[in-house]
Amino acid sequence: MTGPFRYTSPEPPGSAAGVVAGVYEQLATDFGIDRAPTFVVLSAAPDLLAAAWALLRESLLTGQAPRTGKEVVAAGVSLVNRCPFCVAAHTMLLHATGDHRLAETIARGDLPDDPGHRRLLAWGKDMSTPRPFPAAQAPEYIGTALSFHFINRIVSSLLTEDTLPGGAQRYRLVRSVAGRSLARTVRRRLVPGESLALLETAGTAPGWAADTPAGTAFGALRAAAHRGAELLGDEDSALVRASVAAWDGVAPLPLHGEGLPDRAERPGARLALLAARAPYRITDEDVAAWRGPSVTDDRLVRLIAFGAVCAVERVEATLPTRTEEHA
Questions:
Q1: Is 207 helix (H, G, I), strand (E, B) or coil?
Q2: 159-172: per-residue pLDDT in tens?
Q3: Could you confirm whether 86 is annotated as catalytic?
Q4: At what angle do helices 84-97 and 172-180 cross, to 10 degrees?
């Protein structure tokens, strides 16, 4: 396949089988975006694909929290992670909810008029701040935010910046029309938990998820993504984890000086660390330095996913407890 894929050549979705075909079927019916590159790029690693889809579905698409609010949070995450592909996608999805003025306000980088939306956007950019939503909705909002901390890094590392062919997402009319085409799907009420049958991995659900399907999906994604550490030696995987642990978990600023491993000496550690902390800085040279003729698409995807999930866990660790929020 060609198009938005920078370093991989996914199999055409029409030839998919098994769990990959199951994910694509749910994507088309529940998300309304057939063959979404965001997920197709993960298809070389079916366990990662299924878990990433499940977390998005069970947090963003299902539940009681307003879809508009969750899209605003996702847009805030995508803005702080410098992921123009995802910012444009959430702009179109906000158009799909009918919030056209809000969609374009966020697309311009301005603050929403509504105070509640301003608070949600700010929280998406910095999850260490108090939660601007009821406790009962925490699994949906937190799951949505962490889902896009992962997805942003996959997208920035492995896709181009164009959400639509030819960069058509740059035009307001195109964004609006594309969003309106998704309106019926966005307004559907989905049954929670239907993606969980696709999961190939299992992991520990986090405390914030309160035994919801989003928690099951998050545990599966964390377990699947950490398998990528096996592609690095112990020293390199430890370096990645230590660097991410020392990061504040808020702003994925570019790395400087001694913090970034040399491309020639430790290319795998460098690539995983960039995926975690500055995926928009990954270059063709970074990928080529690690990827020889024997490195298949699934190995590249898994290495990027390892860096991404380390960042997700660091962001998750910044979440204040309810006691801290009310101190």
A1: helix
A2: 998 777 787 787 78
A3: yes
A4: 60
> Residue 31 and residue 8: Cα distance in Å, rounded?
23
Q: Where are the alpha helices (DSSP H) in the chain?
A: 18-26, 37-40, 46-56, 67-80, 84-97, 100-107, 115-125, 138-158, 172-180, 183-186, 213-226, 234-246, 267-277, 284-290, 297-317, 322-325
Three-state SS at 159: strand
Which of 23, 86, 96, 310 is labelled catalytic?
Answer: 86
Residue 169 sits at φ, ψ, to 5 deg, of -65, -10
Q: pLDDT tens for residues 121-173?
A: 999 999 999 999 999 999 999 999 999 999 999 999 999 987 777 877 877 88
CA distance 149 to 244: 14
Measure the CA–CA gap between 327 and 321, rounded to whole angstroms. Answer: 10
* Cα separation, 3 vs 207, whole angstroms: 39
